[in-house]
């Protein structure tokens, strides 16, 4: 049987731990960004379908950190839409980078490659084409 040096074994363990930490950090980042995205979606819904009280108001209050700003509904909607696009892009980047990290960690651990794990989601255009084909 082939002898594995302690140093080589430690290097593998350190690499696996680093990858594991990166994977966990990325997953927590995705969760945090998703929470923000959901709050933004709630705010967008509230200003686009206002209640009786909000119909009278042209301006709304917005909280950014410890700062309250009064702005128009249209401007707030534009800010939130831009923030949603940014969050969507960042979440997608993290998700796309997560798959190779998990595959690399599994390889380092000697686990077999997970079949179907590297599947890519359909784009909006592809989904539209599928819907048209389905009727």
Automatic annotation (TrEMBL):
MF term (GO), any: unfolded protein binding
UniProt keyword NAD present: no
Main location: cytoplasm
Keywords: Chaperone, Cytoplasm
Gene Ontology biological-process annotations: protein folding
GO cellular component, one term: prefoldin complex
Location of this chain's protein in the cell: Cytoplasm
Pfam assignment, any one: Prefoldin_2
Protein family according to the UniProt entry: Belongs to the prefoldin subunit beta family.
Functional summary from the UniProt entry: May play a role in chaperone-mediated protein folding.
Assembly description: Heterohexamer of two PFD-alpha type and four PFD-beta type subunits. Component of the PAQosome complex which is responsible for the biogenesis of several protein complexes and which consists of R2TP complex members RUVBL1, RUVBL2, RPAP3 and PIH1D1, URI complex members PFDN2, PFDN6, PDRG1, UXT and URI1 as well as ASDURF, POLR2E and DNAAF10/WDR92.
PANTHER family given in the database record: P53 AND DNA DAMAGE-REGULATED PROTEIN, P53 AND DNA DAMAGE-REGULATED PROTEIN 1
Protein name: p53 and DNA damage-regulated protein 1
Organism whose genome encodes this protein: Ramazzottius varieornatus
